[in-house]
Amino acid sequence: MTTPVETVGLSELYAAHRLALVRLAVLLVDDQASAEDVVQDAFAALARRSNGLRDPSAAVGYLRVSVVNGARSMLRKRRTVRGYQPPRTIESVGPEDRAVVAEEHREVLAAVKRLPDRQREVLVLRYWSGLSEAEIAAALGITPGTVKSTASRALDALERILKDREGWS
Amino acid sequence: MNDLETRLTAALAARADLVRPGDLSHVAPVVPLRRRWTTPLMVLASAACVVLVLALALRLADTTPKADPAPKPDEPALVLPPDEGRDWTADDLSTPAKLDLDGDGIKEKVEFLAEPDPDFQGRTRLQTTLTSTGEEAYGMAQLGSTIGTTALDPIDADDDGDQELVLYRENLDGGPGALMVPLVFDLRDGLLVEAQPSEPNSLVAGYLPIAGSQTTYYDMVRVASYWIENGSLFSSLSVDAFARGNMTLMRPESYVVDAYEWRLGEDGILRAGEPSCLVLVPEAQAPCGSGVEEGFVPYINSVATEAIPEGEWVDFDAGYQFRAAVEPGQPPTLVVDGFDGQELRFPLEVADPVVSTLQPISVFSDGASLIVTSSSDPTFVQTLVQAGDSLVSLVPTGEIALANAGATRTWQTANGALVTMTGREDGSWTAWSWQMVSRTEMSALPWGTVCFDDVDDPTTAHSC
After folding, report:
1. Residue B58: predicted pLDDT
2. Domain topology for A95-164
3. Is residue A82 scored above 70 in pLDDT?
4. What is the per-residue pLDDT across B327-377, written as a single tens digit (0 to 9) for each?
5. What does the alpha-carbon distance between residue B239 and residue B255 come to, in Å, rounded to a whole number?
6. Domain assignment of residue B284, yes or no
7. CA-wise closest residue to B79 among B268, B253, B226
8. Which residues of A touch B32 (CB under 8 A)?
9. Which of B296, B318, B336 is the last residue of a domain?
10. What is the domain range of residue B186?
11. Which of B92, B243, B292, B424 pairs as cysteine with B286 (C-beta 3.0–4.6 A)?
12. What distance in Å separates the CA atoms of residue B446 and residue B441, rounded to the nearest whole number?
């Protein structure tokens, strides 16, 4: 006889992971309002799953993938409408926050924003989420080898951008 | 972790930490997670479905033989390029492409080596040396012609930081609207491999015929296009279909399309994203709903009203040059003096002719052409064209009549088109434009749907 497995409660997931997911999303889409939208959509998608998710770790992984995909869609949509709407200035922080983020961080964040989406995602998942190459590969739907090469290229590109901007080496 | 990684980690953490718990907006979780089949409504719906499926299965089992399921179309497979053509040379008119194929931030130079062929229709070898490794990379393309190969802007369709090469295949013998196909080459395992669209006929530019729309003088086509914007590949397909015939496409200047962005998967397959609505206007485009006009009226709302005064000569300067006059008589005679001194005479069929001072150049422009109506009979419309040393009256043929009464209205527009409106049951009208289809005949091609505030006043035409 098997023991029934409890379906993961959305409320618990929401309480435990919403903040971290919004922080992940804000590193990908730059502004908090968009980040909250992306995360809300991710929870909505999870709620729509017909069979729910019984494994909490799987649920978190599912949400992470949804957030990355949602962030990518949002960035793509912004680019697609670039020519038809006033370009939206995507600031990493609001005026009140600029005083909080140190100058050195701002330079790095600005450089990260200039990276292609895939490179940016890999760096965020690796250096902020602390995921392994295998976990990043699963989250992005690519091979671990691609994660490795993308991260390497991203760091090279980041270094070049920073050198250009500030003569940093 | 080196200095850069340490600095990156600190910066990301600093930015993320700016989002504090108290900053989050107060929104409720969407719904509690619950297996759908456990909700009362779903239980009822599921039961209904089960009954329906069972009933359908029993019915089919009774009446139809079992059929094999339709084969699922396979996605296209990648083809590795053969290592041929090292000794081919680049055509003088070809321009090497420069793009960052390997993502190291330095652009490679890709040369296009042409396969020798008397018709210049051989293959093209794509040849480069990767800046990151110094290794050679090559690919093979069939572009339709080896003359003047030039790449389009590079794209990064998989967001991996390197760029894909975009060429295009054209059908030089296909005439207007012949399909052009963009070809995307991705560096895979040291080779420039042609990515394959998941649906081969959906990433093209040109006219796509609507199946079953062919008539004697035209068929209906949708207009497909593709473009590169901001490093991404897009395609579009017009929502409406337009008549194509007589070397003419009856397309308005602006029209609405479904646009798709193409993304490159790890498997080398290009797949289209969700469609978005765009309005294509000359030299620009805009999203639907952004305030740009989305309903378009063919240019039918202007009327040519000037007629040749009785007993006077009128010069026709636009297009073929001649002068014309109406000689009084029973019946009156139309006289045309060509710029080459040739005189054409045509006995008119009505006693009170009205001969327009504007040539119907959309019908015929290789000689004199005139529109004749009657001041007393609004139903009379006649198109005369020069055939050698005489004028002939074109015989209307095809789907509609050349008439001007009731639910069929005909006039000449201020830019020389001869148009007819045919009424529809819902109160709208189909606009048609007449084209000469043989030495003695003309036929009308559909030009779109219009509505009128007052059908007797063409200037009140508007989109429906």
Report:
1. 38
2. Arc Repressor Mutant, subunit A (1.10.10)
3. no
4. 998 889 999 998 878 899 999 999 999 999 999 988 887 889 999 999 899
5. 8
6. yes
7. B268
8. 9-11, 47
9. B296
10. 76-194
11. B292
12. 17
